[in-house]
Queue: 2 jobs
Job 1
Amino acid sequence: MRISERAERIEPFWVMEVAKAASQKAREVAHTDRPVVFLNIGEPDFTAPPRVKAAAQAVVASGQTQYTPALGMDALRQAISGWYAQRFGVQVPASRIVVTAGASAALQLACLALIDRGDEILMPDPSYPCNRHFVSAAEGTAVLLPTTAEERFQLSAAKVAAAWGPNTRGVLLASPSNPTGTSIDPAELARILDVVRSHGGITLIDEIYLGLSHDDQFGQSALALGDDVISINSFSKYFNMTGWRLGWLVVPEQLTPVLERLAQNLFICASTVAQQAALACFEPESLAEYERRRAEFKARRDYFLPALNELGLTVPVAPDGAFYAWADCSAACQKLGLKDSWDFAFAALQHAHVAITPGRDFGTDQTARFVRFSTANSMAELHTAIARLKAWLQP
Ligand SMILES: Cc1ncc(COP(=O)(O)O)c(C=O)c1O
């Protein structure tokens, strides 16, 4: 069977190889005193809070599960608009909000609406692997620009200006980022926007981890910087609803009917059950629970980062959000005679029974030196992981 060039261009997730090995190991050592600690998974260990679960049960029982409008339920778009005002002090009318099946569908819609064959989109190396594939699926080309720790592993205005070529259509940023947990400095972001605007380009910014920001300096939405910014968001991370498949994007007013047309044809609508349930996310009781969990994520980071650094797994830029630590394992590799972060990840699994993600999926520049730790696990598991890594690395 002939497979489309488009499909052939999409690379496999290497991280799944590690995940498979981790599951195999987990089965082998499940009944020992050293079961595998999973720090490779990019999703919250929490699930939807009680009122959201109850709302989902109620809507299923009521049978009110027909399609919703393609742009999403009006009440949900209003609730998201209210959240922007309450949490970030930014006015985003519901008419600019498009509800989707997760940030993934939001990214697909944005790319399909704005990218033509041959258009180039600038993005940082390292970055979330699917983002370059969304661009590629829309027949565009993702251009990964190497970043440095000084740049917080984010693009800078100077870099965007220097890389802008005749086919460049815009930038796709993520703040805070996966895999680094670092955000773009707001002043730098304003300068990037100036560069993009000077070329008549587009700015797509993935703010899926913005709800899990731990630092007021960085915790502002890029939507405050202008109505031309396209922001992608989700119920997966801050709202702890990964498998519910619900997200949204905020677009300039004139794009809403375009996305409506695409969404009608490609998806009809996002899950009705998930949308109805998500209304309960914005009730005071749920919001209080989400804030409690955000504090827990911060506490985990505050424990885990110094502990990693002490092990010589240096995290060059402290993450200000999300639940990741992007650690340089090159010194440890040298000491242990390991080739790169890929081998390090497998060795950590073998020797410490700790599952982590090698840098390979996230780019090509320095990713052979870096591994990603996810701190979306209990404090007890994080303590166990550090103790095991210490016994392995500093016997
Ligand atoms: C940076 C980033 N963007 C988008 C997504 C996709 O999220 P969703 O579950 O909302 O589709 C993820 C998931 O891990 C992510 O890390």
Job 2
Amino acid sequence: MRLRSNAIYSWPIYPLLFGLYIPLNYFTHNQALYGFSDTVRSLIIAPLLVACLCLVVWLVIRRVHFAALVTTLFTGYAVYFCYTPLVEVPVIIVAITIVWLTCRNNIGSNCSRIINVMMLAVLMQPLIAIASFKQAIQTDHVDPLGTSPFSSIRIDQPVDKATLPTIVHIVLDAYSSNATLRDIFGYDNTPFTDELTDIGFIVGQDVRTPYNQTLLAMSSIFLGEYFDSGQGPLSEKNSDQLRGTLGTMVTESVVQRKLRELDYNYLFVETGYQFLRRPSFSIPSYPGKLPDKGNPYEAGLLSLIGILPPPKESEAIKDRNENTYLRNALTTDFYLSVETPFLLYEHVLAPHPPFIIDREGEDTSQWQEFNSIKAGNAATEGKKELIEGYKQGYLEKLRYTNAALLKQTRKMISEIPGPKIIMVHGDHGSGAHLNDRDPNGPGNTCLSERYNTFLAIYSNDPIIRNRLMSLKSERFNLINLYRLIFDMYFETDIGLLKDQSFFASWKKPQQLNLLDEQQINAECSI
Ligand SMILES: [Zn+2]
């Protein structure tokens, strides 16, 4: 392997750089899902594999520069045709091909030098993306535009800490309103809401979500402010990075910070929803035993390049974590050993898909089409029989959730000492007739199904209960949840925002379309 030039930059190192680029690029597209430490093994093995391939080719043709070129083009071609989202690869292949054609009569150190430089420049793209993502997570972005009403308020520490209320905040993902359950699912949910009323909850009769997507809805609730299209966090063009940022805006919001100033403990129930990562300053509740899933990043990468089958489809239910997380979230009593006051936050993936649990809380494989977190038309494809399956699986999971929640909240009411407020709500309604894959708008989405949701609040303070009675008759938009809580308990004067709801497509969460009342109430063609 003798080279004309001894200069290191004339060596064809670009196949190795390309080997580094593939796992790095996959990571940058999924930074909100994986930790960088998950990538280390891949970053060593992938370049080594490319180097081995290069060596094999060199043993055959005995021309080092040519072997490097052939290996890189082959790797790029193989990856691209198994891995469509890596849109940058064809550009790299074309660029290398142009260099090759330009110096095809003399594929030597000059050619390698040019491609080395080119590949180094290419490698900068994921490196910059990783650095800027970490930056975005580290920066104080909980209130990026300074619009949150919670940022500017001042709450004095009371003389007696015991007068501060413990706050329990349980989110039931995709929980529909009773009217939706009756009209679209043919299910009478009033025995559940009546029982909640019996144990002291005030159940909202007309509850709206500000957004059709989980992270937009939840981050705006914790921000206490609506978003503007393309502004603040929504200026992030990469949708996955945006979701990661919005997730942090939920778990480390200005609300949690204000409560910490008041010496609250922060309890975080791990529910397996990857965009909501546990902040380091919280006290966690984990399910006791999770199946060992290995390195999720590597599994994702290997399935993407066709070496492993897609993880979700291939996994047996017994190896899945969702039910384990769910059972733990709705039964945990770890809060009993924590000093009050505290904020307990749990975002439960129920009755949202996957539908792999029955009403008794046992694993089921009855609804195979809904064994992943996919929702709406990403799962139903708008097909009638699949929509029917969605409704059945949803109701089964709802029945389990209802029973487990009643048990859990009863326990909380009787066992959490001192003043307390327990809030349970859906982040949005169900998605049997949701179409969020069209970037141009809600299409044939049944908006009333998605925007009308569920809210029940318990307080053991009679004055607060009295103020909450308006939920029984007036429209309540969840954007106002913490505005209301702060005004009631901390004597702030934030007030409530006008009721508004926006639609965002799954691919373009940065772009918000304001919906009017007529659109939301329009009859659904189901
Ligand atoms: Zn959701």
